[in-house]
């Protein structure tokens, strides 16, 4: 059976931190603040009867060490691929704000 329900919920910083704590306590998984918003909203969702709720994590918690440390008392481990990104030199190019300039810049 395919179900559909659309809801919107606001989640404040305190609830984000609490959701990170509760998720870690219940699953031993560290989630990032954006995922915590989705999980908190999913817990509140009324939804259609019999419908499952799906929350998709889109970021690694190591991208938000301050929030995770505030919630759990420790920073999440940084995976090697992310550490390489942090250690890489910053590169950027300033491109005029026109579609033609962006197309030319990305080839």
Automatic annotation (TrEMBL):
Lineage, broadest ranks: Bacteria, Pseudomonadati, Pseudomonadota, Alphaproteobacteria, Iodidimonadales
Domain of life: Bacteria
SUPFAM superfamilies reported in the protein's UniProt record: Tryptophan synthase beta subunit-like PLP-dependent enzymes
Pfam families hit by this protein: THR4_C (PF24857)
UniProt-recorded name of the protein: Threonine synthase
């Amino acid at each position: 059976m395919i179900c559909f329900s659309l809801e919107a919920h606001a989640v404040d910083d305190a609830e984000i931190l609490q959701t990170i704590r509760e998720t870690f306590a219940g699953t031993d998984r560290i989630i990032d603040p954006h995922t915590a918003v989705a999980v908190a909203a999913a817990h509140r969702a009324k939804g259609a009867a019999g419908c499952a709720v799906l929350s998709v994590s889109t970021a690694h918690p190591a991208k938000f060490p301050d929030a995770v440390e505030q919630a759990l008392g420790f920073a999440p481990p940084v995976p090697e691929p992310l550490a390489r990104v942090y250690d890489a030199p910053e590169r950027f190019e300033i491109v005029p704000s026109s579609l033609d300039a962006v197309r030319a810049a990305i080839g």
